[in-house]
Design goal:
The complex is a heterodimer of chains A (115) and B (114). Chain A is globular and about 35 Å long. Chain A is built from no helices and eleven strands. The termini of chain A are far apart. In chain A, the strands form two sheets. In chain A, strands 2, 4, 5, 6, 9, 10 and 11 form a seven-stranded mixed sheet that branches. Chain A has a four-stranded antiparallel sheet with strand order 1-3-8-7, with no helix packed on it. In chain A, a hairpin with a 6-residue loop joins strand 7 (65-68) and strand 8. Chain A is 0% helix and 50% strand. Chain B is an all-beta fold and 114 residues long. Helices cover 0% and strands 52% of the residues of chain B. Chain B contains no helices and twelve strands. Chain B has strands spanning 3-5, 10-14, 19-21, 24-26, 32-38, 44-50, 56-58, 64-68, 73-78, 87-94, 102-104, 108-113. In chain B, a hairpin with a 4-residue loop joins strand 8 (64-68) and strand 9 (73-78). The mean pLDDT of chain B is 90. The chains are: A mainly beta (115), B mainly beta (114). The interface between A and B is medium-sized, with 29 and 26 residues.
Chain lengths: 115, 114
């Protein structure tokens, strides 16, 4: 089965620093997503992205966050100035279409630790 | 807005025993329901989904789930658990519309003992 790949698997950063989390979605997929999971809590939707623009975002996705598809294969999540509460596992996902029954393919996640 | 409740945070079963993981949802219209599994160090993998038709859906790895509208439930079942089923299981509900914003439950961690 095709895979979504995420790098790095674990990122440690100092509070206030910028981080970029990288994802390579499945090649023919058109819709891309970021979710996060704070330790012990539920997986939360952050943002969806289609046709080079954000299609939907949650309340969590404030001005400190941005997403980009810089080169047609990578899909990145940038946190401009990290806070302690940004520590979480961040999952990238992609799907062929954006329909509500469409299967999401998830990557194995990037564990972000903000110190 | 939709929401999902998984009342069991942690469940332990013996290998070979049957399994049922509970999930209750809240959504005004007909929901799109999913079960995902997360093995240690892995991403989320879709086990099965329901959006219409037969209320008993079959998934991968021998799992099935039954949609019960009257109880707002979508419980996951497996008749005989294998040690490799030890993982965290997430129920999720998707809203209708053009983009898939899925709301996950808090997860149930399954431990399988010999």
């Amino acid at each position: 089965e095709p895979e979504v790949t995420q790098t790095p698997s674990h990122q440690v950063t100092q509070m206030g620093q910028e981080v970029i989390l990288r994802c390579v979605p499945i090649s023919n997929h058109l819709y891309f997503y970021w979710y996060r999971q704070i330790l012990g809590q539920k997986v939360e939707f952050l943002v969806s992205f289609y046709n080079n623009e954000i299609s939907e975002k949650s309340e969590i996705f404030d001005d400190q966050f941005s997403v980009e598809r810089p080169d047609g294969s990578n899909f990145t999540l940038k946190i401009r100035s990290t806070k302690l509460e940004d520590s979480a596992m961040y999952f990238c996902a992609s799907s062929l279409t954006g329909g509500p029954t469409e299967k999401l393919f998830f990557g194995s996640g990037t564990q972000l630790s903000v110190l | 807005a939709q929401s999902v409740t998984q009342p069991d945070i942690h469940i332990t079963v013996s290998e070979g025993a049957s399994l049922e993981l509970r999930c209750n949802y809240s959504y005004g219209a007909t929901p799109y329901l999913f079960w995902y599994v997360q093995s240690p160090g892995q991403g989320l993998q879709l086990l099965l989904k329901y959006f219409s038709g037969d209320t008993l859906v079959q998934g991968i790895k021998g799992f099935e789930a039954e949609f019960k509208r009257s109880q707002s439930s979508f419980n996951l079942r497996k008749p005989s658990v294998h040690w490799s089923d030890a993982a965290e299981y997430f129920c999720a509900v998707g809203a209708g519309g053009g983009y898939q914003k899925v709301t996950f439950g808090t997860g149930t961690k399954l431990q399988v003992i010999p």
